[in-house]
């Protein structure tokens, strides 16, 4: 079921929670709604579910305008951060509950519940009550309950944020698998960019109720449309270097100038630079992803010297905190690089974003 949002707008008293959102969610895809707390993610889900009404704009399922369709007739499955299971009911009873409401015969309902339980891998746990289940297991029950009516749309609002880091990663894969198997059009709300990057077909990134960019994870990372997008994605985060830049024939010259220091000039080829704004001036900010550099101990032409203030081994990578003059940055080097705190290293930029 394709979902189409046109000029979708929601105000609360004094708050413009969502401003004129236009977006199309392709049938069978998994789209993440990503952005900082308060940017309007839950508002979008609730508008799609029909739990709140828009001030302006429409929600379409296929060609059908849903604005006047009651939530219970929208055929939606929803899962929230809090598992919201009935504590006195077994997992099975919880899962079956929506079918019971629809007066589906018990035997048929329970058979269907067992199928779904298998899909979300809790078939062994069906007789337990919620308090005898771990957080991850409870959330699986909640997902099963959301899926049992064969909804045409699955809405998940930060479903894993109460889980510990390891379980969260496991559940990411799980939801991706479930979504692939069922092919249900799914909207997944998260403020965690890594989570969104790892599971989504498309990411819809919001800030303060406004759409920033809507595309696939790779393109959003490589070709951010503005500074907010570039800065929101990536871990460790994007480095931002204050510099002057100008275009010279077939290449770019970037100049780092700071009072009390000699200026540093480096040049970058056209294909190493991505402009992420329509209004780039010569006094700019250059975004450098931590992994988009080569770190060397030997002085080299076209490199920026910086002093190493901190080193951290992260799995198979070395995170190196450095200062370029008085600007703090973090870069990634191979884990076996022989780099020490207090040394000067030379950074060769492979790719830069201009804002
Ligand atoms: N019922 C409400 N009354 C007033 N303001 C609200 C209400 N619900 C949400 N808001 C405000 O609308 C904005 C968007 O909220 P929300 O969609 O919940 O953000 P998110 O889910 O991205 O954290 C926030 O500023 C929030 O405080
Ligand atoms: Mg929310």
UniProtKB/TrEMBL annotation:
<keyword id="KW-0472">Membrane</keyword>
<dbReference type="InterPro" id="IPR017871">
    <property type="entry name" value="ABC_transporter-like_CS"/>
</dbReference>
<dbReference type="InterPro" id="IPR015853">
    <property type="entry name" value="ABC_transpr_FbpC"/>
</dbReference>
<keyword id="KW-0547">Nucleotide-binding</keyword>
<protein>
    <submittedName>
        <fullName>Sn-glycerol-3-phosphate import ATP-binding protein UgpC</fullName>
        <ecNumber>3.6.3.20</ecNumber>
    </submittedName>
</protein>
<keyword id="KW-1003">Cell membrane</keyword>
<dbReference type="InterPro" id="IPR047641">
    <property type="entry name" value="ABC_transpr_MalK/UgpC-like"/>
</dbReference>
<dbReference type="InterPro" id="IPR013611">
    <property type="entry name" value="Transp-assoc_OB_typ2"/>
</dbReference>
<keyword id="KW-0378">Hydrolase</keyword>
<dbReference type="InterPro" id="IPR012340">
    <property type="entry name" value="NA-bd_OB-fold"/>
</dbReference>
<dbReference type="InterPro" id="IPR027417">
    <property type="entry name" value="P-loop_NTPase"/>
</dbReference>
<dbReference type="GO" id="GO:0005524">
    <property type="term" value="F:ATP binding"/>
</dbReference>
<dbReference type="InterPro" id="IPR003439">
    <property type="entry name" value="ABC_transporter-like_ATP-bd"/>
</dbReference>
<dbReference type="InterPro" id="IPR003593">
    <property type="entry name" value="AAA+_ATPase"/>
</dbReference>
<dbReference type="GO" id="GO:0016887">
    <property type="term" value="F:ATP hydrolysis activity"/>
</dbReference>
<dbReference type="Pfam" id="PF08402">
    <property type="entry name" value="TOBE_2"/>
</dbReference>
<dbReference type="GO" id="GO:0015408">
    <property type="term" value="F:ABC-type ferric iron transporter activity"/>
</dbReference>
<dbReference type="InterPro" id="IPR008995">
    <property type="entry name" value="Mo/tungstate-bd_C_term_dom"/>
</dbReference>
<keyword id="KW-0813">Transport</keyword>
<feature type="domain" description="ABC transporter">
    <location>
        <begin position="3"/>
        <end position="233"/>
    </location>
</feature>
<dbReference type="Pfam" id="PF00005">
    <property type="entry name" value="ABC_tran"/>
</dbReference>
<keyword id="KW-0067">ATP-binding</keyword>
<dbReference type="GO" id="GO:0055052">
    <property type="term" value="C:ATP-binding cassette (ABC) transporter complex, substrate-binding subunit-containing"/>
</dbReference>
């Amino acid at each position: 079921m394709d979902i189409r949002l046109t000029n979708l707008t929601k105000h609360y008293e004094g708050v413009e929670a969502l401003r004129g959102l236009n977006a199309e969610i392709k049938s069978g895809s998994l789209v993440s709604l990503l952005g900082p707390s308060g940017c309007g993610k839950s508002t979008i889900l609730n508008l799609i579910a029909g739990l709140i009404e828009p001030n302006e704009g429409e929600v379409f399922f296929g060609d059908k305008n849903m604005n006047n369709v009651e939530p219970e007739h929208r055929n939606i499955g929803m899962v929230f951060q809090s598992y919201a299971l009935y504590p006195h009911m077994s997992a099975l009873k919880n899962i079956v509950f929506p079918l019971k409401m629809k007066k589906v015969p018990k035997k048929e309902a329970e058979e269907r519940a067992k199928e779904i339980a298998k899909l979300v891998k809790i078939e062994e746990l069906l007789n337990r009550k919620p308090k005898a289940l771990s957080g991850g297991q409870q959330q699986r029950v909640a997902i099963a309950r959301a899926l049992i009516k064969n909804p045409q749309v699955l809405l998940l609002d930060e479903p894993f944020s109460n889980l510990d880091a390891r379980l969260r990663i496991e559940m990411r894969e799980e939801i991706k698998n479930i979504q692939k198997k069922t092919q249900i059009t799914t909207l997944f709300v998260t403020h965690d960019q890594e989570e969104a990057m790892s599971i989504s077909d498309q990411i819809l990134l919001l800030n303060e109720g406004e759409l920033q960019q809507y595309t696939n994870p790779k393109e959003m990372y490589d070709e951010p449309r503005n500074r907010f997008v570039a800065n929101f994605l990536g871990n460790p985060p994007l480095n931002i270097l204050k510099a002057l830049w100008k275009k010279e024939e077939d290449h770019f010259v970037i100049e780092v100038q700071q009072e009390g220091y000699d200026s540093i000039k480096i040049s970058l080829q056209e294909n190493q630079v991505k402009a992420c704004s329509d209004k780039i001036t010569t006094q700019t900010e250059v975004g450098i992803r931590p992994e988009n550099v080569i770190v060397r101990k030997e002085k080299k032409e076209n490199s920026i010297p910086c002093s190493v203030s901190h080193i951290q081994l992260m799995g198979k990578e070395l995170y190196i905190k450095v200062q370029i003059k008085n600007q703090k940055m973090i870069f990634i080097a191979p884990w076996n690089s022989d780099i020490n705190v207090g040394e000067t290293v030379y950074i060769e930029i492979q790719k830069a974003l201009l804002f």
